[in-house]
Amino acid sequence: MIRVAVSGAGGNLAGPIIEGIVASDDLTLSGLFNPKRAASEMAGVPIAGEQADVDADVMIETAHPDVVFDNLASWRDLGMAAVVGTSGFTPERLDHLRELWGTGAPCLVVPNFAIGAVLMMRFAAEAAGHFEAVEVIERHHSSKPDAPSGTALASAMGIGAAGGTSAEGSEELVTGARGASVEGVRIHSLRLPGVLSQQEVALSNAGEVLSIEHLSTSYQSFAAGALLAARKVQSLPGGVHLGLDAVL
Fold first, then answer.
1. Considering 64, 96, 144, 241, which one is annotated as catalytic?
2. Alpha helix (H) ranges present in 78-205?
3. What does the angle CA 188 – CA 13 – CA 156 come to, to the nearest 5 degrees?
């Protein structure tokens, strides 16, 4: 049995992941962490308020971007492998994580645990080199703490590495009208109260547009990918890895 703990217990993403661990026959829920919910419990497991009180082979990290680096430093020091579902990992933050984490245990940063979202990113990167222009439009709930989403950032990095780029030349009459630019790919972030997670990658040549879209309607869509990552992360080399592709 793989002993798995979850950081950010009580959050929207953590809930279905915890349920999936409890229901599995090869994973055991060995700990939970959230200082704001310390002394309460979920699935019969106490929620710890101190990192040192958590013991696991694998930590699934879902906490807020503001605290994720402090948490990851603790999981590294405790010798755990980590699966990171926290959003907001720009190229600069990934570089910082690589410096922080080192090459001991494996750490897998997963911008989106949904299998369909992973395939969307892969298909978009494969198609990008065949089109003159690519842009990313992502929609998330209005309470999401960051923009662009981790999925959009990872998509743009993959598209850029594959030779895709956005068309330039339009003058912005209002700053930000053309969105953010990541690796030469424009990202447009919409925050709407009626949306959970939706992303479109629009690719275009003269006279044609290809749209690749993924929509999550429930946080349950993220559980299977998180459990897959927990099962496989320890087989990866030490150091930081990006994307569920690494274990698919």
1. 144
2. 91-101, 115-128, 150-161
3. 30
Give all strands (DSSP E) within the chain, no chain letters.
Answer: 2-7, 27-33, 41-42, 45-48, 58-61, 81-84, 106-109, 133-140, 180-182, 185-191, 197-205, 208-216, 239-242
Tokens of 110: 């997963």
At 140, is the secondary structure helix, strand, or coil?
strand
Q: State the Cα–Cα distance between residues 106 and 104, nearest whole angstrom.
A: 7
What is the Cα–Cα distance from 87 to 148, expressed in whole angstroms?
9
Sheet holding 41-42, edge to edge: 41-42, 45-48, 27-33, 2-7, 58-61, 81-84, 106-109, 239-242
State the catalytic residue, choosing from 64, 96, 130, 140.
140
Structural domains present in the chain? 2-113+219-247 (3.40.50.720), 115-216 (3.30.360.10)
Ramachandran assignment for 212, one of left (phi > 0), alpha (psi -120 to 50 degrees), beta (any other): beta
**pLDDT tens track for 59-103:** 999 999 999 999 999 999 999 999 999 988 988 999 999 999 999
C-alpha to C-alpha distance for 180 and 18, rounded to whole angstroms:
34
Whether the CB-CB separation of 199 and 120 falls below 8 Å is answered with yes
Give yes or no: 130 in active site. no
Residues 35 and 53: their CA atoms lie apart, in Å, by 11
The pLDDT tens digits of the residues spanning 161-216 come to 999 999 998 999 999 999 999 999 999 999 999 999 999 999 999 999 999 999 99
Q: Are 34 and 8 contacting, i.e. CB atoms less than 8 angstroms apart?
A: yes
